[in-house]
Amino acid sequence: MATQKKRGLIMEYLTTVDHKKIAILYLIMGGLFFAMGGIEAMIIRIQLAVPENDFVSAGLFNEIITMHGTTMIFLAAMPLLFAFMNAVVPLQIGARDVAFPFLNALGFWLFFFGGIFLNLSWFLGGAPDAGWTSYASLSLASPGHGIDFYALGLQISGAGTLIAGINFVVTIMNMRAPGMTYMRMPLFTWTTFVASVLIVFAFPPLTIGLFLLIFDRMFGTGFFVVSQGGNTIIWEHLFWIFGHPEVYILVLPAFGIFSEIFATFSRKRLFGYSAMVFATVLIGFLGFMVWAHHMFTVGLGPTANAIFAVATMAIAVPTGVKIFNWLLTIWGGSIEFTTPMLYALAFIPSFVMGGVTGVMQASAPADYQYHDSYFIVAHFHYVIVGGVVFSLLAGLHFYFPLMFGKILNEKLGKISFVLFVTGFHLTFLVQHFLGLWGMPRRVFTYLPGQGYDTFNLVSTIGALTMAVAVIILLVNVVITLAKAPKVGRDAWGDGRTLEWSLPQPTPFYNFAQTPLVRGLDAFDLEKKQGNGEILPAESLGDIHMPNNSILPFMQSLGLFVAAFGTLYLADGQKWALDAVKDLPAQPWAPFVLILGLAITAGAMIARSLKDDLGYHITKDELIEYERGVK
């Protein structure tokens, strides 16, 4: 019986199109990749703890730093943010699901198989070793299949991200409850909306760049090959036209999570809501105008450098608007120091430090000194860890009752918070000084007596402290799921937006009746007027729901299989680049490619030919179910 139940649960998650269950899938896989990226980071710091260390070889170190950056950005931070977007946004806007539930599942499975494919490189001849940016001059010369795993894996998972971005844009534009105008949307929904628009415009340049890289390595084209008239700088432009908006794709939803937390635990409306919305949109707009500040040392010339320097300085203004609005939200509030609120409070000074060092790099002459030093490593991690990872940890504690019906242990949460924040500053604060003293980034060892020894050891101790904090967090999650009591609606007692008005666990149809939104912070508004729950915008009636489907899984599996065929297709072929053509030929590769494409095409044809009209929950069934959850 237990086996049947287990099999039923696994099949449910393989076929689900429910945004709440897809959120849990994103959380589990994003958490797994986060742990893998963290282990890679620990190996990096152990190697650099003392001079002339031989813990790992130079070649393996290059693979580890490449996979650490790639994993953390593409396979950990983004999916974990998608977990919260899926769990919260449809509920915040009063929708019963996302606009395209089938595509939502497809987006997850593409990310899943792309991430698995990329990490299989460890076991199939070596991981990519050209850095997470995979600059063409390095990636074209990289022997073996590491770079091919990178290009194909990111192509598959990137398609999933693009699908998810399109889905959230359409959902937020078309599925808001009656009365929820754009200027009544919660900040997390706003930041999700802008980040999703950025995904729609930023991912195609990366897709094009990866295709060109695949063609150069496997089919002998010359887009980036200088000897054939190509230009490696084209890759840098394509990558950073994606790469800098990617920073805001990550950090804007983080801003949204913090905005919800500040308002909830200060027990007051977010200060300057309109200014926050316009600042969010302006950050998204300016995010596409600053990519070449990553290329100040390339030689674009003083005019281009000046334009991108000014644009980079300008983007600090709307970010500053947000910082002051958060501070004024806290000011005069009745603050409750929960674990999410502590992470939010720690975020402000940490992120400001990362932002200030970013403005320092906006000056092109200064950037010539900082570039490729550990100062850049420190800056980037203060933005990504101090902004995005803090928000993920805060969001996990804040939205855990929404996703699992239980509140994480506050004592363990606060211990984990103190260790993580302390470890974070120990790790990265000293790296600013290492960079200013001349320590280059991406080096696997250094000589003694250069002044780097002490601060590298301090940095490694800080990284170990963060690792302990994450282990305590995992223990907290396990204990909470196993032993903690269930909570009801409005778990924190001060919920302001629609998602907190629902009973726990949230019904699979979300809202029995579409809610009526009468103002900003709709749930708080109704509580203050003595209603205690959201007023309905419609009478109780039948609800249409989508069917589960195995087809998103099968479509993604087919591309996963086809990627292996593509990977080995050029081996031993005279038209391929030297790095690939010297490998022994694999005669079975075309058949694997065709098999994978056939699986994907078959699933797409099945989807096209089958009239999947979903099903209806009748009014009587709805009344009975509502009695059970209230």
Considering the chains and any ligands shown, give keywords for the structure.
Cytochrome C Oxidase, Chain A; mainly alpha; 630 residues; globular; single chain
Could you explain the architecture of this structure?
The chain is mainly α and 630 residues long. It has one domain: Cytochrome C Oxidase, Chain A. The longest helix has 35 residues.
What would you give as the CATH superfamily?
A: Cytochrome c oxidase-like, subunit I domain
Output the structural class.
mainly alpha
What letter string, H or E per element, gives the SSE order? HHHHHHHHHHHHHHHHHEHHHEH
Going by CATH, the architecture would be Up-down Bundle
Question: Judging from the principal axes of the Cα atoms, what is the shape?
Answer: globular
* Helix proportion: 55-70%
SS summary, helix count: 21
Which CATH top level class fits? Mainly Alpha
Overall pLDDT metric:
93
CATH topology: Cytochrome C Oxidase, Chain A
The structural domain count equals 1
**Beta-strand fraction estimate:** under 5%
Total number of beta strands: 2
Query: Spans of 5+ residues with little confidence (pLDDT < 50)?
Result: none
> Main β-sheet: number of strands, strand sense, barrel status?
2 strands, antiparallel
N- to C-terminal distance? 29 Å
Radius of gyration: 25 Å
Query: Looking across the biggest beta sheet, what order are the strands in?
Result: 1-2
Describe, in short, the structure shown:
With 630 residues, the protein is mostly helical. It contains 21 helices and two strands. It has helices at residues 2-15, 19-47, 58-92, 101-119, 136-141, 146-174, 187-219, 232-266, 273-286, 302-314, 316-330, 339-361, 364-370, 374-404, 410-436, 453-483, 522-528, 551-569, 578-581, 589-609, 619-629, and strands at 543-545, 615-617.
